[in-house]
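Hi support team,

I'm opening this ticket because the web form for multi-chain structure prediction keeps timing out on my end. I have pasted the exact lines I submitted so you can reproduce it. The total is 381 residues across two entries, so I didn't expect it to be a heavy job. Is there a limit I'm missing, or should I split the entries? Thanks in advance, R.K.
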Amino acid sequence: MKIEAIRDSLKASVLAREDLLGAEVEDIYASDLMSDVLAFGLPNSLLLTGLASQQSLISAHMAEFKAVVLLRGKRAKDGAERFATEHSMVLMSTRLDMYDACVRIHALRDGNGVQPKELGTTQAVDNILLQQKFQIEGNDFSKAGYVSTEVKSMLKKIGVDPVLIRSVAISCYEAEMNVFMHALRAKVDLTVTPRLIEVMLTDEGKGIPDVEQAMQEGFTTATDDQRALGFGSGLGLPNIKRNTDELQVTSEVGKGTTLVMRFFLQRPGS
Amino acid sequence: MKIQELIQNLGLKPLSRFEDRDISGVFISDMMSDAMANAKSGNLWITVQTHKSIIPAANLVDVAAVIITSGKTVPQDTVELADRHAIALLSTDQPTFDLIGKLYGLGIATS
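Hello R.K., no limit was hit. The queue was backed up. Here is the completed structure from your submission:
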């Protein structure tokens, strides 16, 4: 489906990147829960959401979406338009609610007979080496997602396969949001060798009393305020596990948590 | 349309005990504050939120039923609370967008 056709059917106004309206999207994802978008959204999709903050745009960018539509006439908040502009996503706003918007796109899709396409194949990447350190300050919520965005851009620049970048980006963003919700600050070390990408995140914070419990889908200690942002629904760590080839979580109560996430460019032994 | 008909037509899985009633309109949101502000009495509320706080919200705005999409595992304390307030809590493996295609096919109007 062309983004332009969706704009017309939703009578949406374009807030950013009108120049990309001619692009095609392959699927639609409707949710206000950003972990859900990161877990189940397919690349090249369009996001329908009532969450008008920059977090929607960052999540969509991590999941390789092409466009975001804000529902019920919501205005883009805190830098969402700028983020969409910088990261080449169409941002639109419609007065419709989520149900009406879904219905109209279904009608459009049925009319066109467009089917979602299969994902592309992965390609091996050779001879790359990169090392970078980042710092996350947990108290400044307006910066949530900046390190993940930076990591994503760096991996893209050195030509890592987009499918793998997406897994790294999603895992980084979930881990970064955990720092904002549960810790004071964190250090992030990104290392890329020809064999793997490793992201180590070491936070200073309250730690996790029972790591096994925290890995269960739906387990959460987030506050209602945090859930209102579309995070904190107990999907973060399970989502990271789903996206990594290797995950180590070590934690000490009262001190902090260390996450080592590994993504293989070449399978060990191959 | 009544809740039981909807369950049969869409192959939904009922999780709680409830009294059958009429459905009028659909509201979709995963944000509690949004649902409390904008859902209407008798609506079908569709969400991926499974935290038990959805039940007081559903009770407060008097929605007819809550459908949890994307095959989310619903925690036991959420189901127990739904039982206690006789809120129809239903689930489906389909994502929200796909389910809406079916609802639209059944001719359920918007809120």
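A quick check on our side: The domain at 3-106 of chain B is CATH 3.40.1390.20 (Udp-n-acetylmuramoylalanyl-d-glutamate--2,6- Diaminopimelate Ligase; Chain: A, domain 1). Let us know if the file doesn't open in your viewer.
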